[in-house]
Amino acid sequence: MKFFNAFRKKSPWILHYNAGSCNGCDIEILAALGPRYDLERFGVINTGNPKQSDIFLVTGPVTYRSRERLVELYCQIPEPKVVIAVGSCTAAGGVFRGMYNVEDGIDRYIPVDVYVPGCASSPQLIIDAVVESLQILERKSKAIETPFKLFGAVETVAGKLSRLGMAKKVTDAED
Amino acid sequence: MSLVMILLAPLLGGLVYGAERVLRARMQRRQGPPLLQPFYDMFKLMDKRTLIIHAPHALLAVAHFLLLWLAVGALFAGWNLLYIVFLHLFALIVLVLAGYSVRSPYSQVGANRELAALAAYEPILVLLAVGFYLVAGSFDVSAILAHGGYLAQMPLLFAALLIILPIKLKKSPFDTVEAHQEIVGGVEVEYSGLFYEFLYMARFLEYLFVYGLVFLFAGASPLWGLLLVLAVFLLVNLVDNATARVRTDQMVKIIYATAFTMATANIIWISL
Ligand code: SF4
Q1: To which H or E segment does residue A127 belong?
Q2: What is the pLDDT of residues A10-34, one digit of tens each?
Q3: ipTM
Q4: Are residues A56 and A72 in contact, defined by beta-carbon separation less than 8 angstroms?
Q5: Contact A52 B192 (CB under 8 A)
Q6: CB contact, 8 Å: A146 with chain B?
Q7: How many Cα atoms sit within 13 Å of A134 on the Cβ side?
Q8: B197-207: per-residue pLDDT in tens?
Q9: What residues of chain B lie within 8 A of the CB of A144, using their CB?
Q10: How far is B239 from chain A (nearest CA, A)?
Q11: Are A113 and A83 in contact (CB under 8 A)?
């Protein structure tokens, strides 16, 4: 509804995920949430729960181990949602570019709305990115957004796409 | 008058919650969110797509909210205090059921902790009602409010209430039930959108419930009651900002060792 749209940008809740970053940008995000920069004055809460979040703050160049969690977390955030890629390595691989165990940037897997440059990016830049993403959030519809790649086999159950074996009842394990 | 209060209870509780978030921010030298932030959050949650695990799970959140509203309404309308305490217990049992009804580990752990916390503070709420009965001669809240102040006769019961307040308000040192850093909110972890909003508003009502209990201690004079509530409000937030979380088993032990003993001693002292 139109009336509620205005409130989206007044209460953005954040989910922060580290997709294999060096922790530099995570510390900057925490600094932005702390007393000095106080992101909470915009109504931001760091929820840690994808189902109650609006903004997905990702750091790190998606290592092979973190790909599935990244996509899984993205899928669990209810729409409308925006994704912010924090740090150079999240945008294009940065210092990790071309390494054997990383993908170069998260936008191979999920659509990104705002990129934050810098290695490490600064709290001011992160605040700017959050404020920028609020305008995008306000414009978005509630249509389902899908990641670019899904992991694992899928099957069709009753006309709906489902992960392989997810719809089946769990039977007793045979040992 | 009291009907209007009952209908507006969630709004009132939301204001209390908003004021608390501002106060906590100021205590940490931050600017903090605006006073109306809880309402912005509410409106935003209405606009989100809702993911439902299964229907009973979602409906139990609504039931929890409505039962709490009933308990707070009964408190405002001046019903029997013992009934109100048990209505509140019923509302929390519904929440625990909701926690157990999904297979998410965090939700289950949260429900376990909620039960442990209930076992810790529920006896004190009942003893509190008994204390009021012994002094005022009636369980009715309207009769309790007609009597003079209670602090002189029930100081230890008041201290016991102060000790269990952080559990009810989900504050340090007794916030293991929610514990966002370890179990991401516990029971509420699988809720989203509209149904999470009911839990969010239930929290506002919880505030009104416990501060209502504090208000009762001032008895006949509402002004003293408000001052008492304000002092307790400041104290609880100060303690929240200055302490760290204790484990659930430690919490239960501490509550029984201090609050329960004090409450029992006070009851014995009144009835002597
Ligand atoms: S951008 Fe630089 S500082 Fe930030 S996570 Fe990547 S490597 Fe670390």
Answers
A1: helix A123-139
A2: 888 999 998 888 888 899 998 888 8
A3: 0.77
A4: no
A5: yes
A6: no
A7: 19
A8: 898 889 889 99
A9: 49
A10: 18
A11: yes
